[in-house]
Design goal:
Layout (H helix, E strand, L loop, with lengths): L2 H31 L3 E3 L2 E3 L4 E2 L14 E5 L3 E4 L9 E7 L4 E6 H8 L11 H4 L11 E7 L2 H9 L5 E3 L7 E8 L9
Parallel strand pairs: 3-4
Antiparallel strand pairs: 1-2, 4-5, 5-6, 6-7, 8-10, 9-10
Length: about 190
């Protein structure tokens, strides 16, 4: 057999198994993304994927992993370890947008017997590849004395007092547009 033929045979012996493995992996990933799934009234499809608690493998990038709570509430995980994450309200695959609610803040604001003020910025919990649209407004919560709240209200900043059962002085106002900096406009 000519040298060229031996080289070709050697090439196929080494590359054929690699190509078969790559094809099998592509088929396996295709099985993950092959069909849209539902959680509640939200359709989950590529690039998002529903975590399957029984499966040991993931179906894609962990940033796009969606957990379905009680079969009704889809949620993205937080980029902060052990953070509660974000409930998905809507996904528009055409517009490449997703509307979410910070579950940690939602829980604090819905607690009846306390009036805890969230002390972290939601934008730090939102990891890449996601970003907050600049048309959104900052929501600023204050936990301060009534005098400080009144002083802030006098500075032309509409401050609304939250009625708390434990008589804490908690105020909320809408700030300026979200711009990704740590400065809160408005």
């Amino acid at each position: 057999m000519a040298t060229g033929c031996w080289f070709l045979a050697f090439f196929w012996v080494w590359w054929l198994p690699l190509m078969l493995v790559a094809a099998a992996e592509e088929e396996q990933v295709g099985g993950c993304f092959g069909s849209a799934k539902r959680c509640g009234n939200i359709t989950i499809s590529h690039p998002f994927w529903l975590a399957n608690m029984g499966a040991e493998r993931s179906c894609g990038n962990s940033d796009f992993e969606v957990t379905c709570f009680n079969g009704t509430t889809p949620a993205l995980r937080s980029s902060v370890p052990s953070g509660p994450g974000f409930a998905i309200i809507d996904i528009s695959y055409e517009e490449r947008t997703i509307r979410v609610i910070d579950l940690g803040k939602l829980e604090l604001l819905h607690t009846y017997n306390s009036c805890q003020v969230p002390f972290w910025n939601t934008s730090i919990k939102l990891g890449r590849p996601f970003r907050i649209d600049p048309v959104n407004l900052n929501l600023i919560l204050y936990y301060c004395t009534e005098e400080a709240g009144t002083a802030a209200a006098r500075q032309d900043q509409a401050l609304v007092e939250l009625r708390c059962s434990d008589k804490r002085n908690t105020f909320v106002r809408v700030g300026g547009r979200y711009n990704g900096s740590e400065k809160y406009e408005g």
